[in-house]
Structures are given as C-alpha cells and as structure tokens.
Design brief:
2 helices, seven-stranded mixed beta sheet, alpha+beta, elongated
Length: 122
C-alpha cells in the first residue's frame, strides 16, 4: 500500500460547537455524534477554546482514491501498528483513509509499516 507522510503536527480536540471549527484549515476532520463534536486539524489551526485537546500527532495518508469495494485497508494497517505497539487515531474521508500516531511513536510506525512492505513517501 502507498502511504504519504503529512507535514504538519496535528491536534485532536473536543469542541463545544461548530463556531470553534477552523473550516479554512488545509485539514479539518470533524465528527459529530449525539454526545460530542470532535475535531482533528493541524495544531497551528486548533482553537484555543476546547473542552479537551491532545496535541502532538503525526499523520499518514493512504494514497487514494480508494474504491468502496476494497476491504481491510485500515485493519491491515492497524494490525501492523498494533504488533509494533503503536496506537492510532484513524480518520476516513470519501476518497481515502488517514492514520495518526503520537509524534513519539511516528518513527517506530514508519519502520513497522515499511517492514510490512508498505511504500511511504515524505
């Protein structure tokens, strides 16, 4: 599988409402349920006012677009990283998937993915 390293550092946040979402940021992943509103964005674009915030994430993009008939992409990547004791935060869009790991684990994640045969571009 082909993966691309994304340059910015990311933050994972819980925000109070849509007014705290940086819609013009180059990356802005929003998840809303009946219990919370979550945001993943570059740390430089993260709002100052959050209910909770975790900084220090790095991201990989699965080169897409990926067809909806493909099965097990995230399962394969997450199993490889779990075997290397690397936790992930996954985000999916219409075209592809993104895997985030803590910055401290990113080099280990890259080594594990490369060892498993994945092609990674910086």
């Amino acid at each position: 599988m082909k993966l691309e390293v994304l340059t910015p550092l990311f933050s994972v946040c819980k925000v109070a409402g849509p007014g705290h979402i940086p819609w013009t940021a180059p990356f802005c992943f929003v998840g809303k349920t009946d219990e919370e509103l979550s945001l993943v964005c570059p740390t430089a674009d993260a709002p100052n006012e959050t209910l909770a915030r975790e900084d220090g994430w790095r991201a990989l993009r699965v080169k897409g677009p990926l067809d909806f008939s493909l099965v097990g992409i995230l399962a394969q990547l997450s199993a490889t990283l779990a075997a290397a004791n690397v936790g992930i935060f996954a985000v999916s869009t219409y075209d592809t998937d993104y895997i985030l790991t803590r910055s401290a684990d990113f080099a280990q994640a890259l080594c594990a993915l490369r060892a498993a045969g994945h092609e990674i571009t910086d």
